[in-house]
Structures are given as C-alpha cells and as structure tokens.
Amino acid sequence: MMICHCMAITDTDIHRAVDWMRAADPDTIVTPGKIYRALGKRADCGGCLPLFIDTMRKTDTLAVPMHLRGLRRAPTQGDTDEGRRTSHRLPQQGAAQ
C-alpha cells in the first residue's frame, strides 16, 4: 500500500527499513526520520506522517528493547526548566513603550 505519494514510499518499504535497522543495531531507537534517511528520502508535505507512524507501529520489530525502556530521568525539584529562564516572554514592565 502506498503510504507517501510525494516520496513513493510503501508500507513494505517502511517494514523493510525497520527490519534492516533493527538487524544492523538491535539497540537503535527507530524514528520516522531514521526511516526516511534509510530509504534515502525526506519528508515533503508531512500529510502522510499519521499513516507513516501507524505503519511503523504495525512492524513487529519496532519495539524499544527492554533494557532501553524507562531511561528517561525523572525531573527533580529544581530541574524542570532545563536551565532556561522561567518565561520566554519579555517582562511586561517597559516592553512596549
């Protein structure tokens, strides 16, 4: 079935790319971007991404390896802003004079 008409990507292409990546590196995290690169293509209009991701999820070998699950570090009390300022907006005082 044709998944992306812009880049002529089929569901078979996606399944084969996922299987190839998993065989080459069992610990890899498979993303849509990695699949596009493996196929030598890139996302064009993005209209296919919901169907593209659905097709990825139906691939048997897509799952994240067990030893890599849950690696995301839980935020601590002072670590929620990742070092950024608390607000991205300019201060309201004197901003628009």
The helix tally amounts to 3
Question: How is the quaternary structure best described?
Answer: single chain
Give the termini separation: 58 Å
Low-confidence runs of at least 5 consecutive residues: none
Strand order of the largest sheet: 1-2
Largest sheet: 2 strands, antiparallel
Structural class: mainly alpha
Helix content class: 25-40%
Order of helices and strands: EEHHH
Gross morphology is flat
Kindly report the average pLDDT value: 81
Query: Roughly what fraction of the amino acids lie in strands?
Result: 5-15%
State Rg.
20 Å
Question: What's the β-strand tally?
Answer: 2
Layout: helices, strands, pairs:
Layout (H helix, E strand, L loop, with lengths): L1 E3 L4 E2 H14 L7 H7 L10 H9 L40
Q: What would your notes on this structure say?
A:
With 97 residues, this protein is mostly helical. The chain is built from 3 helices and 2 strands. The chain has a domain at 2-64. Strands 1-2 form a two-stranded antiparallel ribbon. The protein is flat and about 45 Å long. The mean pLDDT is 81.
Brief account:
By secondary structure, the chain is mostly helical. It contains 3 helices and 2 strands, in the order ββααα.
Features:
single chain; 97 residues; mainly alpha; two-stranded antiparallel ribbon; 2 strands; 31% helix; flat
